[in-house]
Amino acid sequence: MMKTTADIEWTKYVGIPYVDLGSDFVGCDCYGLVSLILKMEWGLDCPEYCPDVPVRERGPFIQEVAEECFIPMPLSSMVVGTIILFQVAGNPIHIGMLAAIDRLGRPLRFIHCLSGCNSVVERFTGIWQNRTLGSYMHKDMYSTCMI
User: Fold this and answer.
1) pLDDT given at position 91
2) Where is pLDDT greater, at 1 or 118?
3) Among 45, 57, 116, 121, which residue's beta carbon has the most beta carbons within 10 A?
4) How many helices (H) and strands (E) does the chain have?
5) CB under 8 Å, gap of 24 or more: what pairs does 115-119 form?
6) Could you tell me if residue 131 is inside a domain?
7) Where residue 76 sits, what CATH number does that domain have?
8) Rounded to whole angstroms, how far apart are CA atoms 131 and 26?
9) Is 14 a member of any domain?
10) pTM score
């Protein structure tokens, strides 16, 4: 079932400390945060990544997961729970999750976690919009909603 912003208590995911390779409330990185929310809110699993992969080289892993576990969707069709892939320093190494859309279906806010910062909900504007490379939905979520 598709959830709306009102169905998810986003505040419980805000303030989680950044921990490289973490994926729980004690600490997580960007991928771990998305995995945690998918597990807690939708009961969905994501593949774990190899701890030997340095942060700057995780782009190929994220792309592999995207092909294996996520379905690409147009940016114009994003809904709450959409996974957003961002480039940082020219590399596709950061992801977040859409947390709110406006009444016209435009993205408003997303949740993510960056190195050195706790998880946060931010506006999906300016720099983050410009860094967006694509949007995806977990394959098991995609089958339950009409896009």
Assistant:
1) 79
2) 118
3) 121
4) 4, 8
5) 115/18, 115/20, 115/29, 115/55, 116/18, 117/18, 118/14, 118/15, 118/16, 118/17, 118/18, 119/13, 119/14, 119/15, 119/16, 119/18, 119/28, 119/33
6) yes
7) 3.90.1720.10
8) 28
9) yes
10) 0.88
Looking at the structure of the chain, the number of domains it has is: 1
Closest CA to 5 of 125, 95, 111, 114: 111
Is residue 147 assigned to a domain? no
Q: Please state the length of the chain.
A: 147
Tokens of 139: 């394959």
Judged against a pLDDT cut of 50, whether residue 147 lies above it is answered with: no
Q: Which residues form the domain of 29?
A: 5-142
Query: Mean pLDDT, the chain, as a whole number?
Result: 85
Q: Can you read off the two tokens belonging to residue 133? A: 């490379």
Model pLDDT for residues 52-84, shown as the tens digit of each residue: 666 666 666 766 776 778 888 888 888 899 999
| Residue in the block written with tokens 């977040």 | 96
Q: Please tell me which residue, 1 or 47, carries the higher pLDDT value.
A: 47
Rounded CA separation 124/131 (Å): 10
